[in-house]
Write a structure and sequence with these properties.
969 residues, alpha/beta, eleven-stranded mixed sheet, four-stranded parallel sheet, 30 helices
């Protein structure tokens, strides 16, 4: 008996050198080097010159340290969007940038000083600034290489840096626009202050953490009460979680509509003897609960032999309204110290008094609370500036002079000096732990305080008619205001409504923040930044407004940057019309949020023309109170409109369990490590696949899923490359009309996919899914896996391998494969740019070309065919049911593959000219007999070449008619 012939060499198997194993970590750097050598970004700008422009303005990260997962997620998402816009044929430049000024950089230099036991204040300011500049420059270089390794395409040769001289000059110019339009003022009011960093902070520089503080109840004796004389001698009880503010107390606030009662203890000895206390009726119970422990402890100390008493209080039967407290006066518990503490402490009405917690009476320290400041200001009670910039009481303060820091928990504790002195004065009614959320500096992680200091502000509610009318000098284009009004707050709120926010729910967040924000404090008491370049008249207190002087200042900054101010010949800048002796030179620096909020002026307008604004800003959700808002306010104050047409907000990257990443927890997922082990494209697949509008997770399991999805897509391309290895469009392509129904159905599916992807990418599509790339990515992967690999390729592999090369069906299949290839490689290029380049160059090698020069594929909308969709949806559903029916026989080895099966179906399918046996990949299908689907082993013999069981094959291993004809040809 002779062996059966081996027909393997006669089968047209796919041929490709494209490897199944990606090896991205090794390949990607070489591809990136090629892009840089050929100036991919520059050539793309040339190819898209004159096209519709799409500007994504880069929010600047701080130049201080290696990139983390948040950076990677943000930059990859931006790159995907920019590349997708370029794919649409638009001119989509991307200018990366860095925030180089401010506390984060200074803090790093100060850390180095502390290690060397150096005092920053002893280092010359110019030397300190030079070290900050060098530090920022170093990390710009490091981060630049790391972002490029991610595959981010941009103008890396000329990024924007807020510390470049021209940038600093423009930032000063933007500040002076506010000054010239009267939108600046200097005033003393409480602002968030970091005693550790000795500077004011913006809301965006603050984070909140749960802490344990000491809560205290303190008694202030009432000495006058014209509307309720029976209260004289009673004590108004206040509650606070910041004991350190008691030494700066100046008043007590009450609620006019709050009901109060007088309460006293039944004890006739010790601290409680004969004392009455005023408290809100609704809060009496909670006060008694806090006093319980204190009373028992004090009683035990004073009367150690009498046991523990039962705590009982009595109160007046009738309550009284807060209005009865009008005109009442208390005295400070430490009044015996004289001076400031001997001054009367009036009771005053205030709207912020509630009965949510405390006692219904609020102690007022106008130095350390905005509401306190405003309420006291109405009565002419001014701040006293008792706490210095480091959080210590002034050396000349009558109580606790030179002591602190006020953020020290022991200093504020029950046994600390404040509580000890209040206890000795008989005023401390209770002291206990209290758990609550408290603001911290996001840089030092230390607690912050509210501290009244002279600062520079941009007012939110000052009418801006003069600004809006001043367009003759080209300061700004005519603003668009549609009914809200002329204040900065109202202009900004109007601009919010005219901006597209993605996701839409983020509109509420930015709107509420702008509605409720205070005036913008723009000054900082630091060294590294852009100075508030103003001259203040010593007698009038007004800052100088002179366009000629301002022009000289801006020119000086262009030549030497911020140092031009700190080392300036100020008389020369003032010119002959002014005497320097009459003016104070302001040396505070600008809030870094003003720096970054001004970047649209020297990046977008500076590079693309005055009046140009960005199409899109993208940052994390925390930037509603940061860059989104500072940019909005800066642009609305100088141009009367938002600097952006749309804003996308993404969530934060968490670890695999949903926890915030932290070095202390050991759960940090390092993007640099991922790239070195798995490649940037894997990380990019993860970013594109996530629902990034919310917080997202990343860990080993998540990355494994991304790797698996990538592997399947890579194999799809590998198959197509192999199947198209010798494809010649001129001699082999067939028209749509000549294609079999299956191919026409697949073109229909491709057209559907194209529409779905365009809805994500093209703003003109006006889709609610715009920029939702998780949909984009999922649609591509589902199409490649379900429509192609598991369905179309599976059915047509017999045609590809075994039909004659000239067979019309095989030609139609390869024509469609070519169409699919050109579409899919373009679709995935924004997501996996390295792999897309590798795929493209594998088929069309050319050192001077790139897949990223290509534009969106041309998809004929006529390919959409609802009738085919209905028919093939049903056929695919029946195919799946057939496969499910075959599977038990395959497991039991009754059949080895679906090709060995005969299928009988009770249902008559609308197959038309379609061979359903070919679709189901079975030997034979009989319809309209019996019920359901019945599978039996086929009795036909198997062709030795195509392995199909067919009636004409006389014995296993011989050829079917088709294969016989192919071999004869």
């Amino acid at each position: 008996m002779t062996d059966a012939p081996d027909y393997k060499s006669t089968v047209f198997l796919p041929v490709t050198d494209f490897p199944m194993k990606a090896g991205l970590a090794q390949k990607e750097p070489a591809i990136a080097a090629k892009w840089e050598a050929m100036d991919l970004y520059g050539k793309l700008r040339e190819k898209r010159a004159g096209r519709e422009r799409f500007i994504l303005h880069d929010g600047p990260p701080y130049a201080n340290g290696d990139i983390h997962m948040g950076h990677a997620m943000n930059k990859v998402l931006k790159d995907i969007i920019v590349r997708s816009q370029s794919l649409l044929g638009k001119d989509a430049p991307y200018v990366p940038g860095w925030d180089c000024h401010g506390l984060p950089i200074e803090w790093k230099i100060e850390e180095e000083y502390r290690k060397k036991k150096l005092n920053k204040d002893e280092v010359p300011a110019a030397e300190f600034r030079a070290q900050c500049r060098a530090y920022a420059d170093k990390w710009v270089g490091v981060q630049k290489d790391q972002f490029k390794r991610l595959g981010v395409m941009g103008d890396w040769a000329d990024p924007y840096l807020t510390m470049k001289f021209d940038a600093e000059a423009t930032i000063v110019g933007e500040l002076l626009k506010f000054a010239e339009s009267g939108q600046l003022y200097r005033g003393a009011k409480p602002v968030m202050w970091s005693p550790v960093e000795k500077t004011a902070l913006a809301e965006a520089e603050v984070e909140y953490e749960d802490v344990t503080s000491t809560q205290i109840d303190v008694a202030f004796e009432i000495v006058e009460a014209p509307n309720a004389p029976e209260l004289v001698g009673a004590h108004a009880v206040i509650w606070t979680t910041t004991p350190w503010t008691i030494p700066v107390n100046q008043a007590i606030a009450y609620g006019e509509d709050v009901e109060y009662v007088t309460v006293w203890s039944r004890f006739d000895r010790g601290l409680w003897a004969g004392r009455k206390f005023v408290v809100a009726k609704e809060l009496l119970g909670s006060l008694i609960n806090r006093l319980d422990h204190t009373i028992k402890a004090q009683f035990a100390a004073d009367f150690p032999n009498e046991g523990t008493p039962e705590v009982q209080f009595e109160s007046t039967k009738s309550s009284f309204k807060g209005t009865d407290l009008a005109g009442a006066i208390t005295r400070h518990p430490m009044h015996a110290l004289g001076g400031f503490f001997a001054n009367p402490r009036p009771l005053l009405p205030a709207d912020h008094v509630t009965t949510d917690a405390g006692t219904g009476l609020v102690h007022m320290a106008p130095d350390h609370g905005e509401e306190d400041f405003l309420a006291c200001k109405k009565l002419g009670i001014d701040p006293v500036f008792a706490v210095n910039d480091a959080g210590f009481y002034r050396d000349d303060w009558d109580w606790l002079a030179g002591q602190g820091s006020v953020i020290n928990t022991k200093f504020n504790g029950a046994e600390g000096p404040i509580c000890t002195d209040l206890r000795a004065a008989g005023a401390l009614l209770s002291a206990s732990d209290f758990r609550h959320s408290y603001p911290h500096s996001w840089r030092s992680k230390a607690r912050i305080i509210y501290r009244c200091t002279p600062q520079w502000f941009i007012p939110m509610d000052k009418p801006q008619e003069a600004v809006l009318a001043d367009v003759d000098g080209g300061v700004m284009p005519t603003p668009v205001i549609s009914g809200n009004g002329p204040t900065l707050r109202e202009i900004a709120l109007d601009a919010i409504e005219q901006t597209r926010w993605v996701p839409e729910r983020s509109t509420n967040r930015i709107r509420s923040m702008v509605e409720g924000r205070p005036d913008w404090v723009i000054s900082r008491q630091r060294a590294w930044g852009v100075p508030i370049a103003l001259y203040v008249h010593r007698k009038s207190g007004q800052y100088l407004v002179d366009p000629a002087v301002n022009a000289r200042i801006i020119e000086a900054f262009k030549g030497a940057g911020a140092d031009a101010w700190f080392g300036a010949d100020h008389q020369a800048l003032l010119g002959p019309d002014y005497d320097l002796n009459d003016y104070e030179v302001v040396n505070d620096i600008l809030d870094v949020w003003f720096d970054s909020g001004s970047t649209h002026s020297f990046v977008v307008e500076g590079r693309y023309g005055e009046g140009t604004r960005a199409d899109l800003y993208i940052e994390g959700s925390d930037q509603h109170r940061g860059w989104f808002q500072s940019s909005l306010l800066e642009s609305c104050g100088t141009r009367g409109r938002a600097p952006y047409g749309a804003v996308l907000t993404h969530g934060f990257a968490l670890d695999g369990t949903g926890k915030k990443m932290s070095k202390s927890l050991g759960n940090v997922v390092d993007p640099l490590k991922i790239m070195s082990e798995s490649g940037a494209d894997i990380l990019r697949v993860w970013v594109a696949s996530t629902d990034y509008f919310d917080d997202v997770r990343i860990g080993k399991e998540v990355l494994a899923g991304s790797s698996d999805a990538y592997r399947k897509l890579r194999n799809t391309f590998r198959y197509m490359l192999g199947a198209l290895s010798d494809y010649d469009e001129e001699t082999e392509a067939v028209s749509y009309a000549e294609m079999p129904e299956l191919e026409r159905y697949m073109l229909h599916r491709l057209a559907q996919l194209d529409a779905e992807l365009r809805a994500v990418v093209d703003k003109a599509a006006k889709s609610e899914n715009w920029l939702e790339f998780s949909r984009y990515t999922r649609a591509i992967f589902d199409f490649a896996n379900s429509d192609l690999s598991a369905f179309f390729f599976d059915i047509r592999k017999d045609c590809l391998y075994c039909d004659a090369k000239s067979d019309p069906k095989r030609r139609a299949y390869r024509t469609l494969l070519d169409t699919l290839f050109h579409a899919l490689v373009r679709y995935v290029a924004p997501i996996i740019p390295f792999t897309a380049e590798e795929v493209w160059q594998s088929r069309f090698p050319n050192e001077d070309e790139s897949v990223h020069f290509l534009e969106w594929p041309e998809i004929d909308t006529h390919w959409i065919n609802g009738g085919l969709d209905d028919k093939w949806t049903e056929l695919r559903n029946q195919r799946e049911q057939v496969n499910e029916a075959i599977e038990p026989l395959r497991r039991e080895k009754i059949v080895r593959s679906s090709l060995d099966a005969d299928v009988t179906m009770g249902e008559l399918l609308p197959v038309g000219d379609v061979d359903f046996a070919e679709v189901a990949i079975v030997a034979r299908v009989t319809m309209g007999e019996g019920d359901g689907i019945v599978v039996t082993p086929s009795e036909w013999h198997k062709c030795g070449r195509c392995w199909r069981k067919l009636p004409e094959v006389t014995e296993d291993g011989t050829l079917c008619d088709r294969c016989d004809e192919v071999l004869k040809a």
